[in-house]
Amino acid sequence: MNFITHLRTKKLLVPLSLGLIGLIVVIVSFINNPQSTQAVLGSTIRQSTPIILGALCGIMCERAGVVNIGIEGQMLLSAFIGFMANVWTGNLFISVLAGMATGALLGLLLAFMSVTLKLDQIIGGTVINILALGLTGYFYTAGLTTAGKIQPLTLGFLAKIPLVGPILFRNPPITYTAIILVFVLQFVLFKTTWGLRTRAVGEHPRAADTLGINVFTTRYINVILGGAIAGLAGAFLTLEAVGSFERAMTNGRGFVALAVMIFGKWTPLGAWGAALLFGFANAMQTQFQFMGTFNIPHQFIGMLPYLLTIIVLAGFGGRARPPAADGSPYEKE
Amino acid sequence: MANKHVLETKNVAKRFPGVLANDQISMYLNEGEILAILGENGAGKTTLLNIIYGLYDQDEGEIFINGEKTTINNSHDAINQGIGMVHQHFMLVPVFSVTENIILGSEVSEAGILDLNKARRKILELTDAYGLEVNPDAIVEDLPVGVQQRVEILKALFRKARILILDEPTAVLTPQEIEELFWVMRELKSKGVSIIFITHKLKEVMEIADRIMVMRRGKVVGETRPSETNKNELANMMVGREVLLRVEKELAQPEEPVFEINDLVIHKSEGRNSVDHVSLTVRAGEILGIAGVQGNGQTELVEAITGLRPVDGGTILLDGKKMPTENPRALTENGMAHIPEDRQKHGLVLSYPLTDNLILCSYYKSPFVKGLTRNNDAIEAYSEKLIEDFDIRTPSPFIPASNLSGGNQQKLIVARELSRDVKILIANQPTRGLDVGSIEYIHRTLIEMRDRGVGILLVSAELDEIMSLSDRIAVIYEGEIVATLDAKDATREELGLLMAGSKKERSIEAEV
Questions:
Q1: Is the pTM above the cut of 0.80?
Q2: Checking CA distances to B8, which of A4, A103, B222, B239 falls within 20 to 30 Å?
Q3: Does domain B5-239 bear CATH number 3.40.50.300?
């Protein structure tokens, strides 16, 4: 009893009990049907990777006070450039770097528009989305072939653990990187000087300015680095997940990433949880279609993850509080 | 104390387009001294301090710190020179803890990683040394304004400031918090910190300053000490003409009641104060002042009687007629005028031009409408007349209200509210943040309205204002009217005790 009241005061009761129920469900279903359980959970991780990377980009930008709704465009153009680099060079590492550089460049563009030109940031992000859609649509030619895609790295004995091993320790490098980045960014944002300054710039830029912190530089760096992370998400799509490019292949992931960022209350760990939830819905959706579980048109099942996003945002979004100076350009006196 | 000049400026000048904000300012600050810079809004006080703090570059002149010539290009330089500034609008991140706010920009860290425990220890050492009590782990937005200000002072001390600049520090404080601030200032002074204190409140200057420098229109017009001057002389220096600090008024000739509040109740809710069975009567031709420390239900009471807030019980009678609640237009049309507490948020639409602000209560009536459209000629003519009548200083009636100074914004509201057929005026903090000249104007206008037979309900946290204007004084404490006194019998001490709630029982005894 004491333990439970203690939990309630710590506001951990709900997530903990949900986690416990989830764990039991997973174990039961693994015993009954090991193969599809493993498939669904493995797919959850894969599906959540571009979302969490996009969300990390959003967190970096918005914590510094720049709203980035151009994540979708950053991902799309990076996916395309990464893919083209792979076509030309055949070197996957260089291709990933090319994708990240593309994202960073678009980040620079966004920073220039919103920090230096003080343009409306929603318009700045929309410019990037339209630009990416137009450029990739125009330059993309069907039928290009590549040397292949990034292969999974098996992490020794860890990969041999039943259930957990194949899901967590037999993934390609960008997926590992995404998970590592979640923890790195969580640490950087809340435990380092840089993080404190970034958050100050996003909450009260004038206060930061009076203490000798350069608001413009801080915003530029965060938006550019965030862009590079969104670029990594794009590279994941063409170089690690699919292996080829399709028109508008990001398919709204950039926007889902924003929803995930809000649901995660602008923290990397929270966003990761939300991204996993979304990834899980997506994996279930694929599984339902694959097994033909429900006798309804597949379009409806395909809506599941997006429906979940809406419900989650409507239910929890209102309670989250964005950084106070989010979206407003800083004017020096 | 050796007269060592820790700070000195020589012939500092700063021009803004069209204005000479600082004209050859030469001043000095001794070690361990409290220098008050007194001046009206726009006199150039803040400009001078922003130059010293490196936020502006001066066009001419030199700055010396500890006798050495120096250049201060940005706040970073100022901090390095031992200058700290507490801005009028606090520069604190509301969602950060006290510790995070204090160390921001001068973090206690190891290889880029914050050491919050060490930072907390350092802050506690500071709070002990200077007697500034504050919990380093509290989140700033949960703290009262006075404590937030203390955090600002700690921020400066943490950066080893020896010169502290306080920009209008008392503007946002309650009387008690002002006392605490003064205590802290004396404490800092005794530790050798030199303080520059900007204000336009004469009483405070007389109380705390060692030396007073008066500025007007960008120039230093005088320097004196509290022992060598008095409030009247200071006010005259500040404004540049004779100012009446005392409100001249005849005895009120109150007539029949115009406004009655009967048993008004508002239950306490989150972040809100309650109003506890308040009954008040305002008669035509009198000023009823409501005295009380801020946050004792005044805001809620005024919002309720002006129709802006639902009530949980009670009625309002205007000129004998029962008024509907939550219907500001009905109140306006029956002769209520309202000068709201926050003139920028509730008094004006800042982005609207003066013309539109002046017709906010009457835009839907003739002559301002012609069928479905506005009658711009009539609106313009009306606005120009009011601007003239109420002496609103503006280059044009078509600029947004946000471009006006605080005093002129208030005149704009007064013009709109009092140019109608008014029976009762609800004035909530009508002079807050205004300079002496504007305060004089508003006070005179209130008395004029009273003498024309308008009933006035005046709410103010400034006890002096209540005492000099009111004919009767009601004291509010925790949402309850604890006493209603005749103004000529009321003393400062008695009101102060009533406002603090400590005399509730005794006043009942006295009545028996």
A1: no
A2: B239
A3: yes
